[in-house]
Amino acid sequence: MQLAGDGEATHKATTWSREWRLPDGVGTFLLLLPGLVFFVVLFVLPATTAVTRSFTDRETDSFSWVNFQTFLGDANGWGILGYTLGLATAATLVAALISLPLAEILRHRPPGNRFFRLLIISPLLLPGIVNAFGLYLLFERWGWFNKFLVDVVPFISTPWEITNTTPGLIFFYAIVLFPFTAINALAAMEAIDPSLEEAAAVSGAGPWLRFRHVILPGAARGIIAGSIMTFVMCFGALSIPLILGGELARNILSFEVYRNAVVFGKWELASAIAVIMGLVQLIAIGAYLALAQGSFARGAVEREAG
Amino acid sequence: MATVRANATGLLAQSLFQGRYLLAAAFLIAFTLLVPAPYIITVVKSFATIWRDTWWPEKTGFQAYEFAWILTDVPRVLGNSLLIALLATLISTLIALPTAWALAKRPLRFRLLIITLLLLPRLMPPLAFAVGTARLFYDLNLIDTHIGVALAHVTVLAPYSILLITAAFAGIDDRLLEAGRVCGAKGYHLFLYIILPMAAPGILASMVFIFAFSYNELELSMLTYGPATQTLTVEAFNNIAEGFLDVAAAVSVILSIPAILILLLLQRWIRPERLTGGFKGN
Q1: How confident is the model over B174-186, as pLDDT tens digits?
Q2: Å between B53 CA and nearest CA of chain A
Q3: For the stretch B227-263, what's the b/e string if a residue is b when 16 or more beta carbons lie within 10 angstroms of its beta carbon?
Q4: How close B277 gets to chain A, by Cα (Å)?
Q5: Would you call B255 and A110 a contact, using CB atoms and an 8 Å cutoff?
Q6: What is the ipTM metric for this complex?
Q7: pTM of the prediction?
């Protein structure tokens, strides 16, 4: 930076084009302008539109709370909100249970490592609706999974109900959306300085202790970042409950937004549900971050003290 | 008491780690069977003409594809999907290039605030604001236009573009820019001959990724599409909703082919963790 400044000063006298320059601040602002315009036009305006409509009475076209009252009062809104939150939280945990062992295995680069990594990113890049549809075919009453249970596994003679059940939905959300956790966990584990683990190994720590006390704390930020994304995706997913949820889809926020807007054309009510969804999402992310940072800070203090 | 339990779980975990090679192998096998299985069974289903409760279809044929061709005018719908994805990719990238440069290389006040705001659309479920998007686009006559659906996609895609291209720009060594300046390169020369070639792999990777995301998008498409702008994902969804499972399987297979090509193309150069990070991540 310093060097460039000096160069400019000497050039100024000779090259006239150099004299006509925008101040740095203005230049930076102009560079940021497309991004800011994008943010305002495509995000803030629609969000504001949704908020205004959510407070509009369909009949009288005036301000009212009626949409929120309808949803939270008559339409079992609190139940739907609780069910969706519980489902997303459980699915995020299951996704972490799949992702952590997977990342721990893959960071040692076992044979076939590249292939497994390709498998992890594939649900991100292939159409989610195909994944959900395929899971339906696989786990329905006469799908391959139940065929396997009944024909191959001893002592099971009737197919399991997996689609259209809550545990099934948790599993489906997790298996479709785990890559967000897995990829971040893996990247974070690989970013840890290998000498730390070597030091632990030399001091006599076995693989479990190394994982527990070196890898897990070191990768915590990445794991949390990934879990937040998994949670966001679980909370907003539409094709999974639509295809795999059956009647249970009626208990899920995103489905209610879709159903009221697209199927019934009740845009005001749909807006109210959407606003609740957005608010809860903001609160959930904030709480999660605060909680995570708090527990890390406490952990660090305890380690210092002990 | 707590320590006893902690020790017990520790012991259990330790013993699990003892047999870790066996466990790891079992885990990886289950994983390998489970993740591709939905796609495989969809392909099998699309070729099945009669398939009740057996492992393999009793009769196979191309019937579902013939129906798909008749019911959904596949070339036109595929064309819509590709055109919308192309538009969305170009718009997102054009928005992201200058913004990412400012984020990567300019001194900024409120940097964290700006980044958080720009990434916020990605941290919201699309349906939370898509209702507003639909209403706004309806007033602007953007519903059922290719550019309208593409713009709706840009809302969720531009944050990814900004994130990926910022990383690409941040990787350029400042000394190269200084060297260029010392040798007399002016603004656009610097951009054309130094910045662009250096950042090109990252920018291209981001564009392919954005293309795939737009191509797969369902929620925002459903609220902004119309008869002229049906995409393959919407068609696949409509067929599932109406219970035409064979046709839905055929459409799903057609839908997946470009996505699989992209996946195979991408796995060489992408660093997927950039895409999936929350704002506290890498």
Answers
A1: 888 888 888 887 7
A2: 6
A3: eebbbbbbbbbbbbeeebbbbbbbbbbbbbebbeebb
A4: 6
A5: no
A6: 0.85
A7: 0.85
